[in-house]
């Protein structure tokens, strides 16, 4: 009989599996083999693949928020100040694998694949809510600034993944970041 894993250990294994091989290859069976346990242990904590994938994406989001929180000012004047603080922290090889998983999820959501097309809008809304707290002003203004921050950061990081770090860095400089 294999090791008795906790929910957190299984989730950590799932995050690492997604980082190593992608979300689309994450299955109960593969995760169980990776951990040296039965897939029934995985199902005990995550009753559906959708639940597992959702929790993996939330865990990755939490890690990214922890990285970003230290870089952000208490209150930002606007989205440009936030992106200027975020991009240097996020544009590094240590964070690239997390964004690779995030962009895979975005692509699967755009292709209307379950659970991504249902989960992605919820995660996006949670990110906007989190970012909005770094701005002052009306709720509508804070939301607009948070959305603009996400659009710029996601665009730069997607460029980093597809065209390479130098292209993304050039774009950031052109944007005045």
Automatic annotation (TrEMBL):
Segments of the chain annotated as binding DNA: 27-46
Coiled-coil annotated residue ranges, if any: none
Keywords: DNA-binding
Gene3D superfamilies xrefs: Tetracycline Repressor, domain 2 (1.10.357.10)
Source organism superkingdom: Bacteria
Entry keyword DNA-binding: yes
Nucleotide-binding is among the record's keywords: no
InterPro entries: Homeodomain-like_sf, HTH-type_TetR-like_transc_reg, HTH_TetR
HTH tetR-type domain segment(s): 4-64
Matching PROSITE patterns: HTH_TETR_2
Pfam families xref list: TetR_N
A GO MF label: transcription cis-regulatory region binding
Name of the protein this chain belongs to: HTH-type transcriptional regulator BetI
Taxonomic path: Bacteria, Bacillati, Actinomycetota, Actinomycetes, Mycobacteriales
Gene it is expressed from: betI_1
